[in-house]
Amino acid sequence: MAYRILSKVKKSLLTEWVTKGVNATRATLGVYPNTLNFYLYPKKAKQPVPWAHTRRDEHESVHLYVDSRFPLDKFIKDWTIYHEIAHLAIPYLGSKYSWLSEGFASFMQYQIMHQAGILAGSLHSNYHQKISPHLRWFNSELTAASIAQRLMKNEQYPAAYWGSAYFFVLADKQLRQAHQVNLVELISHYQDCCRQNDNNVHDLMQSLDNMLETKILANLLQQYENAAAKTLYPEHFE
Q1: What's the domain of life for this entry (predicted)?
Q2: What is the pTM of this model?
């Protein structure tokens, strides 16, 4: 783990936080096949982690900008680290599918926090709170994928991220109904069987489907790219 100008005490606090974040993610999404590198940078802000991103170059890495004036419990309850580590549970999907990648990480951040016992409220209430305000964007004859791409391009990130997270709400529901398996369980097994072999969105969807001998994920992506968004999204989140 690399730090940028942090005291010994602050390094200890932040190391504990990152360790807890990694362990919580592993407990939910499985142990990743690739080693992750973490880089922390000091940044004064009104929240513990004002900004973060991942990189996939020579090594997969998570870069976190932190205000170390906050106590440990505030860091642990902050969603950012779980969101960023979740990104790396699946391959890079390319700029065309950045909406899907962000939807995945947004969906999974709460799954991780819920399983770790640090999510305030139920999973349903958290998804309801985040997704409901953005359903209006998808009440359209345009495809859901094109709407999400436009929202990303226009930097309307909450609408893009949480509108796209609904893809995984639907996928999880369909997997439970058809196979009595949830998406989190599927992703956990995916780390062992397929993560290192996949390089794009179609590899990902095929691998997840093949694990259950189904076409749920591939069909859902096809619907997102071809069907009117209003046929996939409800007027109200239930």
Answers
A1: Bacteria
A2: 0.95
